[in-house]
Write a structure and sequence with these properties.
Strand content of chain A: 5-15%
CATH superfamily of chain B: Winged helix-like DNA-binding domain superfamily/Winged helix DNA-binding domain
CATH topology of chain B: Arc Repressor Mutant, subunit A
Distance between the termini of chain B: 35 Å
Strand content of chain B: 15-25%
Helix content of chain B: 55-70%
Largest sheet of chain A: 7 strands, mixed
Number of domains of chain B: 1
Largest sheet of chain B: 3 strands, antiparallel
Shape of chain A: globular
Oligomer: heterodimer
CATH architecture of chain B: Orthogonal Bundle
Structural class of chain B: alpha+beta
Number of helices of chain B: 5
Structural class of chain A: alpha+beta
Number of strands of chain A: 23
Number of strands of chain B: 3
Radius of gyration of chain B: 16 Å
Helix content of chain A: 40-55%
Shape of chain B: globular
């Protein structure tokens, strides 16, 4: 021992200096370092003199400070991080050595995670993220539910309703009214006109939403009512379309020919839609103040959307209760307490409602795909550890600890996850653009959807987690399997012990993919139903266009009729045009007007007031509509080509006919319509659908547009050539008649129908794509399991063949192995299949969520594909040369 | 890691000295220092530097700790001994071959007298 006190002092000093080093270094080498230093000190002391001793202390101190600092800074000191970083380096190198495996796994993950990221982006930004308004949670649309009075539970408010909301104290902070109309916009006299949508509103709209104009100002509180100044605020997008001139603020523009002053431009981030009671939400290019006295409007008719802001911190229940009280008061005052209700719907819920169930299905499908991916990755890693079985066995025999092997496998999984996640996000950036392009145009905030940093972080994080998780199963297997079994197993080609784990993974994959396939099958079948649905009109070869006729352009009724006739004649004269007509509302656009209708003396009347005055959709048409739109006449005829004197002709759809004339012909019956007028039924058509392609809506009534001097019409042209190619000639023809006419919405009926199918098509493509991807992954898993089992049992099969087994029966043995897994998977999937049906229920059209035909197809398809996946590797047993195999064995 | 060192063959002088010293016999820390001193006094590392090198070599699997036992050269006090591994020996040999080649080059280039030992 160190008896010399000077040596003891040196030892103490060195021990103190040890603190410079990191704790783990100290722990490993501290004692030895001190001992060796003392050894050196002893030599220095033996040499005698002050200088060697001083040099010893100096050197020890400097070395400890410099060495300690650099030891602390040294990155990735393996024993310091308890082996993780060395394992990471190992895992990286091992992966780099097998580029095929790496590419296959990362490729799978990229596609899967990319798909997931796209879905996650859309779901997150549409369903989860708040709307871009100040305290968006406090914003509500308010609707009318007419209860027993009318089949209308989502009706507009009357102006008086909004006035009542505004004047109510309590939880409602402010209320605003939204009307929308289309106007002809021109920057000056004689410039090219364009039709735009304008929202008329109370001056507080922008305060309610919490937005301030980017240029200029919003409306002043007094700028409302009949005497409001003609001022307009334009959207950023529209301002840019006009050339993004900052001097637009203060400039005069014309709305329907009337001069307006632009007072503000909204910021680019601001987007707002007035939600329609029926049909898609409506955006607008410009905002003008409301020009009526709210309290002076008719209290019974609904015409406006109501938007309120509740006081901060108010619960939806409190808002609903407050609105309900106001509704009861209105019911009592204007509806004799027949059951009118007012109710609020949160702005967000209202806007996403049409896409919500489809997105929920997509999200669920995405999560399932992610599960399948995890299992797939786990089984790929397991197969890989199985290949390395021999290597593992040897390292374990030489004393490598199980934990180190487990760490390496888990890290490999994590690394693959990260790579797949990053690649997936890149794919998603592109994929999201595609999805958004395919998505319904009214998908809320469609333009804002993009992969952002948040989504990227979540997806990469999830992918890493998925990879680590997938690494756990093979890691536990590799670390736990008894050494003896590893060594014994590694002697056999194809490995052994992991069999059960891999099999359960295949079972899981089969079960998961069956669930996805069920959802996919149902959605696809529903889409197919939609494709085959008969909408009641022939969409092919029809071009449609809107021709607005503002009163400033054509002041009087007869002028309108003459102009419409001239347009009709000009269109008829175009080459390739078969028939021309016009309508106020196109099919599938949900934009017809509604009215209640009674036919006194009709045989279908029951005496029940509500039943005998149904709410119907009505619109005006010109003669020839039946032929041009391809409607099917069930009885009677189309409107006569020229207006007959003394009679107003009308068509009804079959549902209206059946309502009032269940057993007799409605032809010739007279319907009171409008103010002291009536129309006479001359024909009955199969309902041309207005809302859904696959089912009838409200009863419909078609009157002659000329009889009611309807101004703005959609002209429809049936052609003998591709309708879209006719558009330029149509424009030219209309311009020749009057250059001030602004043609809008030039579309083919096919486009309108495709738009109605868009969301279904998107769901069908995505969910089916996910399902097929899952099926492919499951099949690959099955293939490799059966293939491995055939390799392993080669000897056994050879013996069987040698002692006279038929090749067919041996093949069956090999097949049964895989099919058993499929059978178990199918059984386990049953609850999932039922759940999947329930989940997609709301997105289905004309298909039961537990449609037996679809289920049979799906299970049959799954079995067929998996059978093939088993058969391909199992076929190898037929090529076994028994004698040779046995000799080799 | 061991294969890495063997492949790029780059060892720090102090690491090479340690391997060189341990290739002859198992030694404790001070033993290594003395060995280096006897061979090449100019490149004797200070104790801290040497232990940091030892740590790296252990980590790379080139040397390993052997038993703690009495050291006759320091009054039989107990010391930690280290020994070279097969990988370490291989790496050291690669380095030696490299140095030999350099020496041969120096000789044929006239930096060293020909035939001298």
């Amino acid at each position: 021992m160190t008896s010399d006190p000077r040596l003891a002092g040196a030892a103490r000093w060195c021990r103190r200096l040890l603190r410079c080093y990191p704790a783990d270094f100290r722990q490993e080498f501290g004692d030895s370092l001190v001992e060796t230093s003392v050894d050196r000190a002893r030599v220095a002391l033996q040499r005698g003199g002050a200088w060697p001793v001083a040099r010893f202390y100096l050197q020890a101190t400097v070395s400890a400070i410099v060495g300690g600092a650099s030891e602390r800074l040294r990155p990735a000191a393996a024993w310091r991080s308890r082996g993780w970083s060395r394992d990471a380096a190992l895992a990286t190198r091992r992966l780099a050595r097998t580029p095929g495996f790496l590419a296959a796994v990362v490729g799978t993950l990229t596609v899967g995670l990319g798909a997931f990221a796209v879905v996650f982006t859309v779901v997150q930004q549409v369903l989860v993220a708040p709307l871009p308004y100040r305290d968006a949670r406090d914003l509500y649309f308010v609707w009318r539910d007419y209860g027993p009075m009318l089949d209308l539970n989502r009706g507009w408010l009357a102006g008086t309703d909004v006035a009542a909301l505004q004047s109510s104290a309590g939880v409602i902070e402010s209320a605003t009214v939204l009307g929308r109309q289309r106007v002809i916009f021109a920057t000056g006299e004689g410039t090219a006109p364009a039709e735009i949508a304008v929202i008329s509103t109370t001056p507080n709209l922008f305060e309610v939403l919490g937005v301030t104009p980017m240029l200029g100002r919003g409306f002043a509180p007094h700028e409302v009512g009949p005497a409001r100044p003609p001022v307009v605020v334009v959207s950023h997008a529209f301002w840019q379309r006009l050339g993004a001139d900052p001097h637009l603020v203060g400039a005069q523009v014309r709305l329907d020919g009337e001069p307006f002053t632009v007072i503000g431009v909204l910021p680019p981030t601001f987007a707002f839609v007035r939600h329609a009671s029926l049909g898609p939400p409506q955006a607008a290019e410009a905002y003008v103040p409301f020009d009526l006295e709210l309290g002076a409007t008719s209290p019974t008719g609904g015409a406006y959307a109501g938007l309120i802001r509740a006081k901060a911190g108010t619960t939806p229940q409190q808002v609903a209760a407050a609105i309900d009280v106001i509704g009861r008061d209105i019911d009592a005052r204007h509806f004799k307490s027949r059951g009118l209700r007012l109710y609020p719907v949160s702005l967000k819920a209202d806007l996403v409602a049409p896409v919500r169930s489809a997105l929920v299905v997509l999200a669920a499908a995405g999560v399932f795909l992610l599960l399948v991916l995890t299992v797939n990755l786990a089984s790929a890693l397991l197969a890989r550890s199985a290949q390395r079985e021999h290597e593992l066995a040897v390292s374990r025999a030489l004393g490598a600890d199980g934990a180190a092997i487990a760490r390496a496998t888990i890290l490999e999984g994590g690394l693959l996850g990260v790579l797949g996640g990053v690649a997936g996000v890149l794919v998603a950036v592109w994929g999201t653009r595609t999805l958004v392009a395919l998505a319904p145009l009214d998908l809320p905030r469609r333009d804002a959807i993009a992969v952002d940093a948040y989504v990227a972080v979540v997806v990469i994080g999830l992918a890493t987690l998925l990879g680590l998780l997938a690494g756990v199963a093979p890691a536990t297997w590799a670390a736990r399997a008894p050494l003896s079994r590893l060594l014994a197993g590694s002697a056999v080609r194809g490995g052994g012990g992991h069999g059960r784990l891999r099999r359960s993974m295949v079972v899981a994959q089969v079960a998961l993919s069956l669930v996805l396939l069920t959802a996919g099958g149902l959605v696809v079948r529903s889409f197919e139903r939609l494709l085959r649905a008969d909408p009641g009109f022939a969409a092919d070869n029809v071009l449609t266009m809107r021709v607005p006729m503002p009163s400033l352009l054509v002041p009087d009724g007869p002028g309108v009729l003459a102009l419409q006739q001239r347009i009709s004649d000009a269109l008829t004269a175009l080459p390739g045009v078969v028939a021309v007509s016009a309508t106020e509302t196109l099919p599938m656009t949900a934009l017809m007007n509604q009215t209640t209708l009674a036919i006194p003396g009709a045989p279908g009347n029951t005496g029940n007031r509500e039943r005998d005055r149904p709410l119907v959709d009505y619109t005006g048409i010109r003669a020839g509509y039946v032929q041009t739109m391809g409607l099917r006449l069930r009885a009677g005829r189309d409107l006569s080509p020229s207006r007959p004197a003394g009679v107003r002709e009308a068509l009804v759809d079959h549902t209206l006919a059946e309502h009032f004339f269940p057993n007799s012909s409605p032809l010739g019956a007279s319907i009171p319509f409008g103010r002291d007028q009536s129309v006479t039924i001359v024909g009955v058509v199969q309902q041309p659908r207005l809302y859904d392609l696959h089912r009838d809506g409200r009863p419909q009534l078609y009157v002659r547009a000329e009889d009611f001097e309807m101004r703005t019409m959609y002209f429809v042209v049936r052609t003998s050539r591709a309708p879209a190619t006719l558009a330029p000639e149509v424009r030219a023809a209309v311009r020749t008649i009057d250059p001030r006419l602004a043609l809008a919405d030039v579309r083919t009926m096919q486009e309108i129908v495709a738009g109605a199918r868009r969301q279904q098509r998107l769901s069908a493509v995505l969910v089916a794509g996910f399902a097929l991807a899952a099926l492919l992954l499951a099949s690959l898993g099955l293939f490799s399991v059966v293939s491995g089992s055939v390799t392993r049992r080669r000897q056994e099969f050879a013996v069987r063949l040698a002692i006279g087994a038929q090749p067919g029966s041996v093949l069956r043995l090999a097949l049964i192995d895989g099919l058993r897994l499929v059978a178990i998977g199918v059984c386990l999937a049953v609850p999932g299949v039922v759940g999947a049906g329930e989940l997609v229920r709301h997105t289905l059209v004309g298909v039961s969520p537990h449609d037996p035909v679809t289920l049979a197809w799906v299970v049959g398809g799954l079995v067929a594909v998996t059978l093939l996946a088993c058969y391909l590797p199992a076929r190898r047993v037929l090529r076994i040369d028994a004698a040779q195999s046995l000799r080799q064995g | 890691m061991a294969t890495d060192k063997a492949r790029d063959g780059r060892l720090r002088p102090v690491e090479f000295h340690i391997l060189l010293s341990l290739s002859a016999a198992e030694r404790h820390g001070y033993g290594i220092i003395r060995d280096i001193e006897s061979l090449d006094a100019a490149s004797v590392p200070d104790v801290g530097t040497m232990y940091r090198a030892l740590a790296r070599l252990v980590e790379q699997g080139l040397i390993e700790a052997s038993a703690r036992r009495p050291a006759p050269d320091v009054d039989d006090e107990r010391r930690n001994y280290y020994r070279i591994t097969t990988a370490g020996r291989k790496v050291a040999r690669v380095e030696a071959v490299r140095l030999e080649a350099l020496t041969a080059a120096a000789r044929s280039g006239g930096l060293l007298p020909r035939g001298a030992r």
